[in-house]
Amino acid sequence: MLNHISIAVNEPKRVAGILAELWGGMVIPFPPAPGSYIVLANDGKGSGVEVTPAGTVLVPGEGLPPEDDLNAATAEYEAKFVKSEFVPQYVATHLNISTELGIDEIRAIGKREGWRTFVANRDGGLFQLVELWIEDNFMLEVMTPAQTARYREITSPAFIAKAFAGDIPGFAIPQTGVTQSELSLIG
Fold this sequence. Notes:
The protein contains four helices and ten strands. The protein is an alpha+beta fold. The protein folds into two domains: 1-62 and 72-87, Signal recognition particle alu RNA binding heterodimer, srp9/1, CATH 3.30.720; 94-165. Strands 1-4-3-2 form a four-stranded mixed β-sheet, with helices on one face.
């Protein structure tokens, strides 16, 4: 289970508020990273998104705590949020969340914020979601209850086994033919 993720944006408080609106959740300050907030989904699972200022990165601590004492103080060894000079325009990381809102409500939020927003039919219509591009830089995939139900269906072990065995009419595992050396860095 995914518990939480960190994303970096230009306006953390604004973006955190919008995530809370989509989730029906709450926003609280996130002290480990100055100027950051955490959005909690209020889903009974502890799902959250830490929203940090653009250019914030995590770096590992140095050394390791004693292995024989699981209750030892570890603050000096833990990862730290730090500011980086490098701020990519786009990243490979994206987030898919479920909402109780409908497509029109999600579109209205995107329009209100001035962000690229559209209904995407992934893999030729295998499943559907709404792409909501936060600040037009970070892809947030938002799924309505019906879209979430379909996603759960197609990611079930039974469906995956049938798909790879070729037992689902009209569905084939795509072969891209793209090699690692053909991929390029977007920056």
